[in-house]
């Protein structure tokens, strides 16, 4: 059978015409989509980049009304509401997203996480806890566990906090043994003596290098009238946590005096002071030094090693001046000047306090207070 070239001659123009029509249809569809694309969305982005949040919110609301199926617009709008503190509106946006049946699994988890953040920022801890619990097994589980931990610490629900810390430890989110020890110490503070001792010993096993369980246990033993046991507990604590000696020095001195172990305590504190001079350790040594003149001289020796207004004030308080009638005035001025230097300062947020805290009252960070005072930092 002969091949008819006329079909080829007719087919080429027809194919060209069909291709041209198809391209025109694609261009028309593109123009229609461009016209339908919410211009308000781009206006909202422009306002957002210029930090004009009020105008950005209005533009995004307009965009959502024109295209209610766009999930990204809902997320953007919800986040803007949350940043502005309009938590009720943020909650409504994210709850609307969760009510949609066409939402993908990943987007549903994202909306659930956003809703939990809304409740958390609004201070609705019960609802935030419920929302965060629903994120178990999702990509947001790690963030949800950290948020739950913060909630339980804030509400001082230490058993729940301990449970979450165990999960975070198991998931490789970090080492939470130090926090576990603090949780046990917090529970011990409100428990009967026998139960408190058990909890504190568990805390010592959970975090051997943490000084708090030993300090709290020694205080419990002192209250029970066993000063010798308290002294032994603090002696072991000094060996296990040398950086915490300034915090341990005062309770160790008290336990030594009560148990008649002054000589042993003095030798131990002098050894640690030689290795790392500290005002609190120096004060403990002075309290244990039987020779008053030798004790006063310790402040001068400290000044030879490190300039310290606090040590100078302590030394001057025990000295007689040529014009003794002015001594109280001079001493009062010095005491006022050194007060800020004897505070403790949080290494995380800079919050200063007269006493040492295991958890910062300002930023809620654990173990953020160094054992040394401001003057020694």
Automatic annotation (TrEMBL):
Q: TPR repeats: which residues?
A: 37-70
GO BP annotations, alphabetical order: lipopolysaccharide metabolic process; regulation of lipid biosynthetic process
Name the Gene3D superfamilies on file: Tetratricopeptide repeat domain
What are the TM regions of this chain, as residue ranges?
A: 6-25
Q: Which UniProt keywords apply?
A: Cell inner membrane, Cell membrane, Iron, Membrane, Metal-binding, Repeat, TPR repeat, Transmembrane, Transmembrane helix
Task: Classify the source by domain of life.
Answer: Bacteria
Q: What is its main location?
A: membrane
- Protein name as annotated: Lipopolysaccharide assembly protein B
Give any Gene Ontology cellular component.
cytoplasmic side of plasma membrane
The record gives the membrane topology as: Single-pass membrane protein
Q: Which molecular function term from Gene Ontology is one that the record holds?
A: iron ion binding
Question: Which family is this sequence assigned to?
Answer: Belongs to the LapB family.
Cytoplasmic compartment ranges equal 24-377
Q: Which residues bind Fe cation?
A: 346, 349, 360, 363
**Annotated LapB rubredoxin metal binding domain residues:** 344-368
Q: Could you tell me which PROSITE patterns the record lists for this protein?
A: TPR
Q: Name the source organism.
A: Caenimonas aquaedulcis
